[in-house]
Every structure is written in C-alpha cells, then in structure tokens.
Automatic annotation (TrEMBL):
This is Urea ABC transporter ATP-binding protein UrtD. Residues 8-248 form the ABC transporter domain. GO terms for molecular function: ATP binding; ATP hydrolysis activity. InterPro entries: ABC_AA/LPS_Transport, ABC_transporter-like_ATP-bd, ABC_transptr_urea_ATP-bd_UrtD, BCA_ABC_TP_C, P-loop_NTPase. It comes from Ferrovibrio terrae. PANTHER family: CONSERVED COMPONENT OF ABC TRANSPORTER FOR NATURAL AMINO ACIDS-RELATED (PTHR45772), HIGH-AFFINITY BRANCHED-CHAIN AMINO ACID TRANSPORT ATP-BINDING PROTEIN (PTHR45772:SF8). One of its GO terms (cellular component) is plasma membrane. Keywords: ATP-binding, Nucleotide-binding, Transport. The keyword ATP-binding applies.
C-alpha cells in the first residue's frame, strides 16, 4: 500500500504523559472508504489515538497524514474538523431541546466551506442533503420530533446524521453501541455498513458481537501499539491477544 493511497496514515507515533508512553510507535493505515474497527483493553491508547487524529493531543513523534498527504500534526482541532474529519463521542451530544430537523440545520450551518454561507434560509441543495441524511440514519419519520424525546439509539443515529450533513469524510466513532438495545445495535451495524465505501470509518468498540457483525478488519491496540491486526477470527485466535485479554 502506498502512503498516497491512504485516507489515514499513522507511522511511528508516540506520545507520553508525564513520562508514561500512552502511545508507543503506533502505525495505522486506513484506505479511503474502509471500515476499520479498533479494539483493546482499557488503557490501550484507543482514546489517545483518536485525540491525536482530531488534533486534541499532539504526538511527540511520528507522522499523521490525512488523504495521504495532509500533515495533521501541524493543524489545530478546528482546521482538522474543516478537512472533513469528525468524531462522535460515546455519549450522545445532540441539542435536546431542538427538533431532529433543527439539529441537522445547525450541523449544516456550523459545517465547513460553502455551507458556512448558509446562515439564512436553507437552499434546496441543503434540504436535499438533510433529507438524504435523515433517510440514511432512519429518522425520516422523526423529523419534527424533539431530539430529547428520541431513544438513546436514535440520538446516536441523529449525531451520525449530523456528521453526514457536514460532509465528514473520515468518521471516528467511540463505542457507538454502548448502552444500546440489541435491536438498536443491529441497526447501527447496518447503518455503518451502508456508509462503508462512501465514507472512511474508524470505530472503537468493546462489544465483540457488534465487531463481528461489522465484519471489518480489526486492529488490536495494547500499550499504545498495534498488538494484532486482521479479521475478527484472526485476532480472536491470536495467542498474544488472548493473553492480553485473559492472561492477567
Ligand atoms: P483507552 O481509550 O484504550 O482506554 P487511553 O487512550 O484513554 O486508553 O489511555 C492510554 C493510557 O494513557 C492510560 O494509561 C491513561 O491513563 C493514559 N492517559 C491518557 N490520557 C492521559 C492524560 N491526559 N494524562 C495522563 N495520562 C493519560
């Protein structure tokens, strides 16, 4: 794989907090349109890795490239978001007092580039984009509902929809199915699989059944580095992974 063909490229990335190496010579290559799942025990460095990609934490060493060429280590969080890199945290953070539609509207208005000029009325292109996002995340019948009245799962989908209207190309999801019912978890897997190919997705998740349903390549982090990588079956049968999860 050539670096120029990657959507996300990390190499030799390290970061220490008070002398403790949370990320240690980390390498990761994600192709455009790929869905990648990241797993690893608590403290493995998953959150810190996401923080490095979004510019919240700056690495002490290493390369972090977007679209094979843009050096993310030199950009601040706002500039990185404006490139089309968006993160959804574990807890839903929608505007509870606004309707689903108004949430999308705000997402559009705060988005990068041309959408920034949409401070007044939404044009038909913007409405089309919202309609498409509503349909994609399965909230088309909830458009006038107050976001606070949605189920936990629906709020999570709304937030993913907000990233979609913002034209986010690299979507980072932190434990998207935590707290969801089984049915919501299945629907979330379907949603993510619909987005695969269209957007690049990096999903940190603990729920192994969900990880299996996604059927994507899995990267296992441990002590800030890649311990194992491959299919779900490959990593689950990797003796090093078994030792890290069960051998303590
Ligand atoms: P994970 O998300 O996989 O559970 P984290 O990235 O949160 O792992 O943490 C990796 C390690 O780095 C942990 O040992 C954690 O305590 C440490 N760490 C993370 N952020 C900080 C920080 N801001 N200051 C000090 N230590 C931190």
């Amino acid at each position: 794989v050539r670096v120029s063909d990657t959507q996300l490229y990390l190499d030799g990335v390290s970061v220490s907090f008070d002398g403790f190496r949370a990320i240690n010579n980390l390498a990761l290559m994600v192709a455009p349109g790929e869905l990648r799942t990241i797993i690893g025990p608590n403290g493995a460095g998953k959150t810190t890795m996401m923080d490095i990609i979004t510019g919240k934490t700056k690495p002490d060493a290493g390369e972090v490239l977007f679209a094979g060429r843009i050096d993310l280590t030199r950009l601040d969080e706002v500039a990185i978001a404006n490139l089309g890199i968006g993160r959804k945290f574990q807890k839903p953070t929608v505007f509870e007092n606004l309707t689903v539609f108004e949430n999308f509207e705000l997402a559009l208005k705060s988005a990068r580039g041309a959408w920034k000029t949409l401070l007044g009325r939404l044009n038909s292109e913007a409405l089309d984009r919202i309609a498409w996002a509503l349909d994609t995340v399965g909230l088309e019948t909830k458009v006038e509902d107050i976001a606070g009245s949605l189920s936990h799962g629906q709020k999570q989908w709304l937030e993913i929809g907000m990233l979609l209207v913002q034209d986010t190309q690299l979507i980072l999801l932190d434990e998207p199915v935590a707290g969801m019912t089984d049915a919501e978890t299945k629907q979330t897997a379907e949603l993510i699989l619909t987005l695969k190919g269209e957007r690049t997705l990096v999903v940190v998740e603990h729920d192994m059944e969900f990880v299996r349903d996604l059927g994507a390549k899995v990267t296992v982090l441990h002590e800030g580095s890649v311990l194992s990588e491959g299919t779900v079956d490959h990593v689950q049968n990797d003796p090093r992974v078994i030792e890290v999860y069960l051998g303590r």
